[in-house]
Amino acid sequence: MTNRSVRIRVPGTSANCGPGFDAIGLACTVYNDLELTLLKEPELSITIEGEGAQNIPCDNRNIVWRSVQYLLRKAKLDKEYPGAIIHMENNVPLSRGLGSSATAIVAGLKAANVLIGNRFNRRELLQFATDIEGHPDNVAPAIFGGFTISTVTRGNVECFTFMPKFRMKLVVAVPDFPLSTRKARAVLPEKVPMKDAVNNIGRAAMLVAALCKGNDKFLRNVFEDALHQPYRAELIPGMYDVFQAARKAGALGANLSGAGPCLIAYTLEKRECEEAVGEAMKKAFQQHGVASKILIMDLDNRGAHIVNENKE
Questions:
Q1: Which HAMAP family match (predicted)?
Q2: Which of 184, 215, 260, 262 to pair with 15, CA 20 to 30 A apart?
């Protein structure tokens, strides 16, 4: 009898979505694939293709393997499966604000869960992923797809997921430099002014309402943020100029993707302006000496899912 294996596909994600700091996220149509085989021998083989292949550790530090082990410990099967064969095919840019670590965590948890007979449901996987990542804003859309709104109450995660009432295109400018989440969080203040908190509460609520009701006219001003973008702007040359260029080219709005440095703009599919928006964002970055590439994507509506499974 051969060892069972499974191939899992997980979408990249964007967190914050403007005013929804650490609460709102979305899944987009760029994917990382993971093939996992659990072994009953203490052997570990990790191979990586694509984004981050030269930088991601291929030993016990690997976040996919650590996530697999986490789930096996929860199932009390870590002694039964002390080893694994892991193959990663990555398309999500590393350390750019598109949830690369979240895709790895969710892929490891999902793949291991499938191989032990789906002992845990998606809500439990969300809790595990949040415990590993530290916050749910990227792991939630990676699991569920679409837009997600997450809260944590005394350590317990709750997540609401939905697809907007109109079709959107996501235009992402990926600059040619990485930015660690740790560095991006280090520039944030411990306290913020009341007016900035009010600004974000109102806009985050308006964003969700407009998406759920399908009323795009209310999206023009909702992506503005006062809690994290002003402090992170110094880390991303030309950030506000890129936002302005995107809007002038027809975008509904634009914001920092997660902790950055990717910048994401939102357009309505019917307006067919995403190519112009991408070009405008790229040119604005160039004016500040930053090279970038443009990704034009849709919202992913599936989240993490099985591509194929070997049940021999």
A1: Homoser_kinase
A2: 215
